């Protein structure tokens, strides 16, 4: 086991100063040379998604978390 060395996984390399970000979907390695750009893009995208949700209220609609939505959908299909 080594510390602060470059490692390889498949055809990719991860360097000691790279950023590792993980969640339940998986892990990403973000090179330090683009970390600020990626962070700025992520923040902008998150703000835009918040804006969209305010414009089009889809919470509970998709994905469906409200039983009434399924009833409304069935009624819509039967029109």
Automatic annotation (TrEMBL):
It comes from the Bacteria. It comes from Hyunsoonleella rubra. InterPro entries: RraA/RraA-like_sf (IPR036704). SUPFAM superfamilies: RraA-like (SSF89562). This is Uncharacterized protein.
């Amino acid at each position: 086991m080594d510390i602060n060395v470059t490692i390889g996984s498949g055809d990719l390399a991860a360097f000691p100063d790279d950023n590792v970000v993980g969640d339940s979907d998986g892990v990403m390695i973000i090179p330090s040379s683009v970390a600020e750009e990626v962070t700025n893009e992520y923040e902008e995208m998150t703000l835009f998604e918040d804006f969209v949700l305010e414009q089009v209220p889809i919470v509970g609609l998709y994905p469906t978390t409200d039983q009434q939505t399924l009833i409304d959908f069935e009624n819509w299909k039967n029109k």
